[in-house]
Write a structure and sequence with these properties.
This protein is α/β, with parallel strands linked by helices. The protein folds into 4 domains: 31-207, P-loop containing nucleotide triphosphate hydrolases (Rossmann fold, 3-Layer(aba) Sandwich), CATH 3.40.50.300; 215-407, 3-Layer(aba) Sandwich (Rossmann fold), CATH 3.40.50; 414-513, Winged helix-like DNA-binding domain superfamily/Winged helix DNA-binding domain (Arc Repressor Mutant, subunit A, Orthogonal Bundle), CATH 1.10.10.10; 626-726, Arc Repressor Mutant, subunit A (Orthogonal Bundle). The protein contains 36 helices and 17 strands. The two termini are 26 Å apart. The chain binds adenosine-5'-diphosphate (ADP) and zinc ion. Zinc ion (ZN) is lined by residues 382-384, 400, 403, 405-406.
């Protein structure tokens, strides 16, 4: 047998090679590969993915494979700059045109586009509709028109924009460009609307799961929200988070309270002027402020991938709103924690506002409120279930392992009868007129002025609870509310005893619960999900990143994401090659920033005698499973069997096995006929072999070999098997 087939170009980039070399990632997120391939096949595509699903790569990778220009329409001017900065850091020639540019910059950018120096052009819809831009684009080869936030085209969406309607027109004026519409809005109605407005066929739609598995979902009864907030954020030292409040006043007060306690928190709401809002948002994005306390006005223009927590200080108005807000956490795929503080008084408050409305609007708002209330009050079912059901997605997994309800049972229950009785009696003795914090202070024997003034130091329960600390008492109080022993009045959150509590006190009913706060649970969670890494080294890498980011005038995550630094601190790469194994390190970033980080890691490792660990890249693992696809795709692009043998250091037989497996999955191999040229089988022999495959199947070659009495060797049979499988495709 001779292997002389036309040599393909072994360095021809593929989606997978761009993913690694340009963006530094090892594996695709769900549906990214499918969407990219569909776009490359020039089929108009609608991709629906949740926030953080990785929509951007779905057009950025094709843009780098197409000859011509990819135009990205986005309504979020603030995000364009961010996207372009991130692309440039990865060495991708991208720029934007919108009203935020000075006239000279605008001209300059137009020039670059005209000269074909740009692969990706971001524009606002109103910009795209100007004659000036239209004229420019008409002279160029536009290969792809991407419409981001495509739900804006639908009047059924929550964010309809009239300019978007005209995109249908624009789309027709560039008939040779493939169109990719992207959105995170999952409702079928909006999806159908997008497709019909843009004239897409039914089939080319990809809808990813809306389950964000890396988000830990938790609901706690709201007893003393300010303290609960402080307790919560203490778990996230130096890590970014968002706190959502209902009103502007609450935002200001809480931000102030947190600042006074030494947290770097900034407020954000529509009552602040533009400049103030911009400064605060910038501080958050650049890690100068750790926490943003905000009304729902905050978030649309935020691309920050490393938000580690979202705290809902008040009840959101709907499941959709809740989902959108928690969606801003953990876009980088690392664990993030979402805590909702729930009290019935919030429901009452929202209801009060809803009652000012009329007719159907009021009806709809009430339905939304009921749904989120049911979600918050559910203490048994997985939190993901109602959330995903709401978006029309069935969630069948019994235990997600990542919400409070699913992990609750795993915690050992202890006998808390005695402290529970203490707490309940103290509520009783203080006259059922106080909140949990006050009751706790009495139990701890506090000398606070208010306690003395009320004479609560003379109660029999004063100071009897010193064996537990304040946190433990507050945690206990929350459990007693949750279990229905305590009732909470809406306005001032005062606690009173339920009949269940009175019975329990009288009958000394045993009560089971936990004395230790979620702390251990949190750290246990974090350990489960994350890589073990050196925290001191991570802190140094982070400081280096901040320094470089400030120098370059970009947000730190543009340099490297947290995940990248976590991996560096776990594997301690010491050479440029090893550095390229790290997720998020592409060729350009390695060149630009690699040295600075390597020097730091090397110095640290030397000082602490830390060895480098080799990362077994996930790609290597996945590739071995999907190797046959990669080989077959390369073959389809024209690479020869010999070239593939060399590349993968395997025999011809192995390559032929890969191709057969590919053909057996029903996919077509191009120019498989050329393989036949490699075979020395006569037409008669070939017919006999085909007949044998027909009879005996293609899974095993031995029966066919035997049937032909060893007339043809195994490599011959392998070639004929491929041709057999590839018939009539
Ligand atoms: P979306 O627009 O869907 O909200 P993005 O495109 O902004 O999501 O991606 C969210 C984050 O995930 C970004 O930081 C991006 O770099 C990262 N990301 C995207 N795809 C991958 C991947 N295949 N592997 C690792 N990280 C990825
Ligand atoms: Zn769950």
């Amino acid at each position: 047998m001779v292997f002389i087939l036309p040599e393909g170009n072994p360095r021809m980039p593929t989606p997978a090679s761009i993913l690694k070399d340009t963006f530094g990632y090892d594996t695709f997120r769900p549906l990214q590969r499918e969407v990219i391939e569909n776009v490359l096949a020039r089929r108009d595509t609608l991709a629906v993915m949740p926030t953080g699903g990785g929509k951007s790569l779905c057009y950025q990778i094709p843009a780098l494979l197409f000859d011509g220009l990819t135009v990205v329409v986005s309504p979020l001017i603030a995000l364009m700059k961010d996207q372009v900065e991130q692309l440039r850091a990865d060495g991708v020639p991208a720029l934007f045109l919108n009203s935020s540019l000075q006239p000279e910059e605008y001209q300059d950018n137009m020039g670059k586009v005209r000269r074909g120096e740009i692969k990706l052009l971001y524009v606002a819809p109103e910009t795209l509709l100007t004659p000036r831009l239209f004229a420019l684009l008409s002279d160029l080869k536009i290969d792809c028109l991407t419409i981001d936030e495509a739900h804006c085209i639908s009047e059924w969406g929550h964010d309809f924009r009239p300019e978007y309607r005209q995109l249908a027109d624009v789309r027709h004026r560039f008939p040779s460009a493939v169109c990719l519409a992207l959105t995170a809005t999952a409702t079928p109605r909006v999806r159908a609307d997008i497709k019909s407005s843009l004239g897409f066929s039914q089939s080319n739609e990809f809808v990813a799961s809306f389950n964000r598995q890396n988000l830990f979902l938790e609901v706690q009864p709201k007893l003393d929200p300010a303290l609960q907030a402080v307790d919560f954020i203490e778990h996230f030292k130096d890590q970014s988070g968002i706190i959502y409040c209902f009103s502007r006043k609450q935002v200001d007060e809480l931000a102030d309270f947190l600042e006074r306690r030494g947290h770097l928190a900034r407020p954000y709401h529509a009552g602040l002027n533009d400049e103030q809002r911009r400064i605060n948002q910038e501080a958050f994005i650049c890690d100068d402020a750790q926490i943003i306390v905000a009304t729902i006005a905050f978030g649309m223009g935020i691309n920050k991938p490393d938000v580690r927590f979202v705290l809902h200080y008040d009840l959101p108005k709907s499941i959709e709103g809740y989902y959108q807000e928690i969606g801003r956490a953990g876009r980088d795929g690392l664990p993030a924690h979402c805590l909702l503080l729930y009290s019935y008084s919030d429901v009452a408050k929202l209801k009060y506002f809803i009652d000012q409305k009329e007719g159907p609007e009021r009806q709809v708002a009430l339905q939304h409120l009921h749904a989120i209330t049911r979600f918050a009050e559910d203490k048994t079912n997985c939190r993901r279930k109602p959330l995903l059901n709401y978006f029309g997605e069935a969630y069948t997994i019994q235990n997600c392992q990542n919400c409070d309800n699913c992990t609750a049972e795993a915690l050992p229950q202890t006998d808390i009868t005695l402290p529970a009785q203490m707490f309940l009696s103290c509520v009783k003795r203080t006259g059922e007129r106080f909140g949990a914090a006050h009751v706790t202070e009495v139990l701890l024997g506090s000398n606070a002025e208010r306690i003395l003034r009320l004479g609560h130091d003379r109660l029999s329960t004063y100071g009897i609870g010193r064996e537990l600390n304040k946190k433990q008492w507050m945690h206990l109080a929350r459990q007693l509310v949750q279990m229905g022993y305590l009732e909470q009045e809406s306005e001032y959150r005062t606690l009173s005893l339920s009949n269940k509590a009175l019975d329990a006190l009288k009958n000394r009913t045993p009560i089971l619960g936990q004395l230790h706060e979620a702390e251990e649970r949190l750290s246990r969670k974090a350990r489960q999900a994350e890589l073990e890494y050196n925290h001191a080294l991570f802190a140094l890498l982070r400081a280096k990143r901040k320094e470089l980011a400030d120098q370059a005038g970009v947000p730190p995550y543009v340099i490297f994401a947290d995940r990248t630094l976590v991996e560096m601190a776990a594997y301690a790469p010491q050479s440029p090659e090893r550095l390229l194994d790290i997720s998020g390190v592409g060729q350009v970033k390695a060149r630009q920033y690699g040295q600075a980080f390597l020097e730091l890691i090397q110095a640290y490792c030397q000082k602490h005698n830390l060895p480098e660990k080799v990362k077994e890249t996930r790609r290597a693992k996945e590739d071995s499973g999907r190797r046959y696809v990669i080989v077959a795709e390369a073959f389809n692009r024209g690479e020869s069997v010999t070239a593939l043998m060399e590349r993968y250091k395997v025999t011809a037989g192995t390559i032929l096995d890969h191709l057969a497996r590919y053909a057996a999955t029903g996919q077509k191999l191009h120019h498989a006929g050329q393989l036949l040229a490699l075979s020395s089988a006569s037409p008669d022999q070939q017919a006999a072999v085909f007949a044998a495959f027909d009879e005996l199947g293609t899974a095993l070659l031995k029966p066919v070999f035997d049937k032909l009495n060893g007339l043809l060797d195994y490599d011959e049979l392998k070639i004929l098997r491929i041709c057999f499988l590839n018939q009539d495709k």
